[in-house]
Amino acid sequence: MDNVFIGSGTRILYGVRIGSNVIVGSGSLVNKDVPDNSVVAGVPARRICSFDEYLAKATAYSEDFRQRYGISRLHGVSDALAQQLYADFCAAKEKSE
User: Fold this and answer.
1) What is the pTM of this model?
2) What are 62-86's pLDDT values in tens digits?
3) CATH 3.40.50.10490: does it fit domain 4-52?
4) Where are the domains of the chain?
């Protein structure tokens, strides 16, 4: 389906359906259908969390990391410029959807 990430070394058995907005962890064995909006991993693959929960955790971690260490130290870009670039990116993404 759409918007699926499959980690390296993953084995997906024949006839298994993977839904939209799914992340499959590396080295997993997918032997059953994976529902939409899921994050799965393991042997056999099991649901870890929803796609939305994963995005919320990743966003929170990213924001926490940026606040602790500052994006300017990581990329040579001022925080103000980074925030403007991100705002522009989000606006362009909303227009395309």
Assistant:
1) 0.64
2) 776 666 655 555 556 666 777 777 7
3) no
4) 4-52, 64-96
